[in-house]
Amino acid sequence: MDKKLLIASIVDKLSVEMELIAKAAMSAHDEATHPNEKQENQFDTPGLETSVLAEGQVKVAAELREAADSFRSLQMHEFAPDEAITLGALVKVEVRGEPSYFVLGPKAGGIEVVFDGNKVTVLTPQSPLGRKLMGRHAGETIPADPVPGARPLKVLSVI
Length: 159
Known about the structure:
Structural class: alpha+beta
Shape: elongated
Helix content: 25-40%
Distance between the termini: 8 Å
Number of strands: 6
Number of helices: 3
Strand content: 15-25%
Order of helices and strands: HHEEEEHEE
């Protein structure tokens, strides 16, 4: 997998989501400031509620922009066979006998993209699985958590 193209795919997804949220925020702002949205009494608050919604959407759009910028500036390199997993690693793990792909990113944990026919999930080093993977190497097995149904993970490759 070409990691530069993978990162571009993640940035594209973040940018599309940011545009959608920004449009929704503008729409909510327009609705909140529309002349027909004047408060008729102290209990009539749709304009206030809509402006709070718009404010939240603006914050989410800013977070998405920051995440996209973080990925754009991420220093990518190919990992040597004995190199430990760090930020920027594309990791293939075996979960319950099936391969899963994760990229360790600076932000936007949980974002998923389909790349080269595989679902790739962004993990941050702060996430539980991200913490477990950081510093590990290809070939290592990560013990299962002591909870019912948990299975160990085997690191198949680090790119």
